[in-house]
Write a structure and sequence with these properties.
Elements (H helix, E strand, L loop, with lengths): L2 H15 L34 E4 L6 E7 L7 E7 L4 E7 L3 E7 L6 E9 L2 E10 L2
Antiparallel strand pairs: 1-2, 2-5, 3-4, 3-6, 6-7
Length: 132
């Protein structure tokens, strides 16, 4: 018997002697047995509500911008910022929910950030890649 076999036998003997002990063999398993689950631990899942959708990404000539704002803002705008933080585009938005098409042919290829801004505060940011 090699060392690995001895360790496995030891671990299995512990599992059999104490049913409250749980052990997971380091083998990928898409459906682990129920005895491995810890019923007292529940995952915390927080979903961030998305207000902004940017597509196609990467963009070549234009991109579509869908936004849907639930809250009321006095001032609502879209800012596009390049990778070094320079503001390259800004547009005031009138409606709370709509779609805008934005031409990007004049911009250099690279990474940009599309910010949805409400009352001077960034509500959401999406990355946009421009390719030529």
């Amino acid at each position: 018997m090699n060392r690995q076999s001895i360790v496995r036998m030891f671990v299995y003997s512990i599992i059999q002697s104490d049913p409250e002990t749980w052990y997971r063999e380091p083998i990928p398993d898409s459906d682990p047995p129920a005895r491995m689950a810890r019923p007292d631990i529940k995952p915390v899942v927080t979903e961030k509500q998305s207000y902004l959708k940017v597509y196609p990404n990467p963009a070549k000539e234009y991109f579509a911008l869908d936004y849907n704002i639930q809250d009321t803002y006095n001032e609502l705008r879209i800012d596009i910022v390049d990778a070094i933080g320079k503001l390259v585009f800004s547009k005031k938005l009138i409606k709370q929910k709509t779609q805008e098409l934005i031409d990007v042919q004049i911009y250099k290829p690279g990474l940009y950030f599309v910010n949805l801004v409400g009352d001077g505060r960034i509500i959401e940011t999406q990355k946009l890649s421009i390719a030529k």
